[in-house]
Design a protein that fits this description.
Blueprint (H helix, E strand, L loop, with lengths): L2 E6 L4 E8 L3 E9 L1 H5 L6 H23 L8 E7 L3 H18 L3 E5 H7 L16 E6 L4 E8 L2 E7 L5 H11 L6 H9 L23 H20 L14 H6 L2 H26 L4 E5 L6 H10 L4 E2 L3 H4 L4 H12 L20
Parallel strand pairs: 1-4, 4-5, 6-9, 9-10
Antiparallel strand pairs: 1-2, 2-3, 6-7, 7-8
Helix pairs in contact: 2-3, 4-12, 5-6, 5-7, 5-9, 6-9, 9-10
The chain binds 5'-O-[(R)-(carboxyoxy)(hydroxy)phosphoryl]adenosine and zinc ion.
């Protein structure tokens, strides 16, 4: 039995988890900073790293206590060293180094994106799916949108990526345009349930002949619609102002068909993600498709991917799609098993890549 402590601090979640043999979660503690950042409408890097410093040790202690383990029961410590916010990553990496050195444990640096993929290996009740290669991973997070061909553990080939915004970033930006709370992804999914996805005809960037994505045109199309509603209000503005800012005019927000716009936007993003993943999977004759990253928590994406693909589709439970340390411990196990060890000079790499391409 191999037990790995995983540590994750790449963005705004301070997380620690113990996982056995790469699949069995013994503990999984996530301290979210989202309430702290909400007032800024996004992640405030300095606030994030300071908060990690305050929370990291209590979170690790809790993960050890919930796993009911002593330090001697661990085989290694795995930690995210990139990609992410440098100041945030530093807290996790330095803590992991100190603990590993002090306790005489091997240290294993993990790529955050690899962690998201490995969330699919974590056992959840009722899951019995055997995972075989080659597989296609659709990674959709706040910072990444990529189609990755995985031919074995630790073997990745990047087939496609976003040329501009990541899918999660598009959700967050459109959420802001619609006056929804941060992060936009879950907020859009919630209000979209009341909306008609066919209400607005929004663009879909197919970028035919490539495996790449683009979401900035779609975001601009939503912006134009929001501006049209702003203009409508400004025409009837009794003060005679030609235009008034959305923030100054709650009535604009009320008139804006938020649910219909959210549903149409969501349908457009998901249509492209699903169709391109499906076609790529066919072309490369993979055995299964995996969803990974925060946007993989989206119910419509999960449903559509499963419905529109003839292949088995795997996705982690929502809580394991967004940032957590169990996925880092799982990825750490497979690297540990392959003999991978990091040296004591492991440093953060904020733009760390999963593949060379
Ligand atoms: O993987 P993650 O937790 O952090 C990164 O590594 O970026 O992803 C966060 C992203 C945010 O952009 C958030 O809006 C999006 O995932 N997200 C969702 C949903 N839940 C989180 N997007 C769409 N639908 C959701 N239910
Ligand atoms: Zn992430």
């Amino acid at each position: 039995m191999t037990r790995i402590l995983g540590i994750e601090t790449s963005c705004d979640e301070t997380a620690a988890s113990v996982v056995e043999d790469g699949r069995r979660i013994l503990s999984n503690v996530v301290a979210s900073q989202i309430d702290l950042h909400r007032q800024y409408g996004g992640i405030f890097p300095e606030v994030a790293s300071r908060q990690h410093i305050l929370t990291i040790m209590p979170v690790i202690r809790q993960a050890m206590a919930e796993a009911e383990l002593d330090w001697d029961d661990l085989d290694a410590i795995a930690v995210t060293y990139g990609p992410g916010l440098p100041g945030s990553l530093l807290v996790g990496v330095n803590t992991a180094k100190g603990l590993a050195y002090g306790r005489g444990l091997p240290l294993i640096g993990i790529n955050h994106i690899e962690g998201h993929i490995y969330a699919n290996w974590l056992m959840v009740e009722g899951s019995s799916q055997e995972i075989s290669f080659p597989l296609l991973a659709l990674i959709v997070s706040g910072g990444h949108t990529e189609l990755i061909l995985m031919t074995d553990h630790g073997q990745y080939r990047k087939l496609g990526r976003t040329l501009d915004d990541a899918a999660g970033e598009a959700f967050d930006k459109v959420g802001r345009l619609l006056g929804l709370e941060f992060p936009g992804g879950p907020a859009i999914e919630r209000v979209a349930r009341e909306g008609n996805p066919l209400a607005f005809k929004l663009p879909r960037a197919w970028l035919k002949g490539t495996y790449d994505f683009s979401f900035s045109g779609l975001k601009t199309a939503v912006l134009r619609i929001v501006q049209k509603y702003e203009d409508k209000v400004s025409l009837t503005d009794s003060a005679g102002n030609r235009r008034i800012a959305v923030s100054q005019a709650p009535s604009v927000i009320r008139q804006l068909p938020v649910a219909n716009l959210a549903a149409s936007f969501q349908a457009s993003v998901i249509d492209v993600l699903v169709e391109k993943a499906r076609m790529t999977a066919e072309e490369y004759q993979v055995k299964l498709i995996m969803l990974a990253g925060g946007v993989a928590a989206n119910r419509l994406l999960r449903q559509q991917m499963a419905e529109r693909s003839a292949l088995p589709v795997l996705y982690p439970p929502p809580a394991l799609c967004t940032d957590n340390a169990a996925m880092i411990a799982s990825a750490g196990y497979f690297r540990y098993r392959a003999g991978h060890r990091s040296s004591w000079d492991l440093d953060v790499i904020s733009n760390l890549k999963l593949t060379d391409g």
